[in-house]
Each structure stands twice: as C-alpha cells, then as structure tokens.
C-alpha cells in the first residue's frame, strides 16, 4: 500500500500537478508514511517559496521546507479558468471524499475515456467519459497513457497501474491522519472499560450513605392532661 501511495505521488507530481492543486497537503505529511524525513526535505527543497519580508522589507524566494504546502499550478481562480477553457480544475486534497464512489470513481474516470456515441455533442476542447456525472462531456482530456513515465521502483507504468496508484495516493491525502485516528480509537476502547469501572465504584462509594439513609416519621406527642 505504501509503495502504491509513493508511486501515486509520482503520478500526481508529473501529470496531475500541472492543473490540479492540493492545498491541504504539506511535505511534512509525507514523513514516515512513504518518505523518510530526509527524502521529504529533499523533495520540498525542489520548489521555490515566496517568504519575507526580509531585513530590507522586501519579499524573497527560498527553497521549500517541510512546513510548506504543495505548490499550486495557478496563482488564482481566474488564471486557472483562462488556461482551461473556462473550466476550473478542482483541488484534489479531499477529492475522494467529495465524489461519490471515492477512489473507485477516480480509477474509472481516469481509465474510462472513449469515443463519443453518434450524435453526442462534445466540444473540441472536451472529451467523452461515461463515468463523468455531468453529461459525460469532461473538460479534462485523457491524461494517462501506457509507459508515459518511469516508476522509481521499476513497476510497469500501464494506464491502469497509474490510475490505481494515483487514486490510492489521493485516498490517503483525503485522510492523512486516518491510521493515527484508528490507533487512538483502539487505545480509547481499551481504556474505557477500566475507567468506567473505577468511576462506577467511586459513585457507589460516594452515594452509598445517601441512598442507605432511612427517614422515620414520628408524630408529635399529645399534650398531657395535667
């Protein structure tokens, strides 16, 4: 799984990052997941980040750090639409949670391009994909082709393999804290029974004297005849 996530990041970096951003993911998220700290630092240092102001009051460019987020392909939404015939490429940080079917939908979308049926209207800048929900005409043309890149681990870069890997990477990116959350949930499930038993015993001990009290009603004495 971790190897697939690492390969998926390579597909995103070399293919998807040309149009799609991942605003919620920083390089520190890679550490101890599919990269070592040194590898993540080296990966981050490949980008230039605007920082500052410096001592002269001006902004300056510096190499990226672990705390920096993945670079965005466009400076703003207007530039993104101008470069894509009016269509806005969605941010992929949480795409598997935002689309019905999650990673399965992404896999089918990336591998499902075909010629449109006779009479189906498709613009010159669009492609036909029956898995795309809005009428099957999609602004993103086919992006994955066999052997278009070379994996670092030597895995054959077929279209289906790249689609599977990038879908796996995007699934992880949607919930990078997933494994940590599950581990904490397991620890809590182990701790809750003894804590509940202690609280129950304390409650019984504290309230025993209240619940065991006995109230007796005594009628007032009648005044004597004397």
UniProtKB/TrEMBL annotation:
Location (main, coarse): mitochondrion
InterPro entries: Cyt_c-like_dom (IPR009056), Cyt_c-like_dom_sf (IPR036909), Cyt_c1 (IPR002326), Cyt_c1_TM_anchor_C (IPR021157)
Localization of this protein: Mitochondrion inner membrane
Cofactor note text: Binds 1 heme c group covalently per subunit.
Residues annotated as binding heme c: 16, 19-20, 140
Keywords from the UniProt entry: Electron transport, Heme, Iron, Membrane, Metal-binding, Mitochondrion, Mitochondrion inner membrane, Respiratory chain, Transmembrane, Transmembrane helix, Transport
Cofactor(s) of this protein: heme c
GO molecular function: electron transfer activity; heme binding; metal ion binding
Any one biological process term the GO annotation gives: mitochondrial electron transport, ubiquinol to cytochrome c
Annotated ranges, domain Cytochrome c: 3-156
Superkingdom of origin: Eukaryota
Entry annotated with the keyword Secreted: no
Similarity comment: family membership: Belongs to the cytochrome c family.
Listed PANTHER family: CYTOCHROME C1, CYTOCHROME C1, HEME PROTEIN, MITOCHONDRIAL
Listed name of the protein: Cytochrome c1, heme protein, mitochondrial
Organism listed in the record: Trichinella pseudospiralis (Parasitic roundworm)
């Amino acid at each position: 799984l971790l190897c697939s996530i690492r390969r998926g990041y390579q597909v995103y970096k070399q293919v998807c990052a040309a149009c799609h951003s991942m605003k919620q993911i920083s390089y520190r998220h890679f550490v101890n997941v599919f990269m070592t700290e040194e590898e993540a630092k080296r990966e981050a240092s490949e980008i230039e980040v605007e920082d500052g102001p410096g001592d002269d009051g001006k902004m300056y460019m510096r190499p990226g750090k672990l705390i920096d987020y993945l670079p965005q392909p466009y400076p703003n939404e207007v530039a993104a639409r101008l470069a894509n015939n009016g269509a806005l490429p969605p941010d992929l940080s949480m795409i598997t949670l935002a689309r019905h079917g999650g990673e399965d939908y992404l896999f089918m979308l990336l591998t499902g391009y075909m010629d449109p049926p006779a009479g189906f209207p498709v613009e010159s800048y669009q492609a036909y994909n029956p898995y795309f929900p809005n009428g099957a005409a999609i602004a993103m043309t086919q992006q994955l082709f066999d052997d278009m890149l070379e994996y670092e681990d030597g895995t054959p870069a077929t279209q289906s393999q790249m689609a599977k890997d990038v879908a796996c990477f995007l699934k992880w990116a949607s919930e990078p804290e997933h494994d940590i959350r599950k581990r904490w949930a397991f620890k809590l499930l182990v701790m809750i029974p003894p804590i509940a038993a202690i609280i129950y015993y304390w409650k019984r001990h504290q309230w025993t004297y209240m619940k065991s009290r006995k109230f007796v009603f005594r009628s007032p004495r009648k005044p004597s005849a004397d």
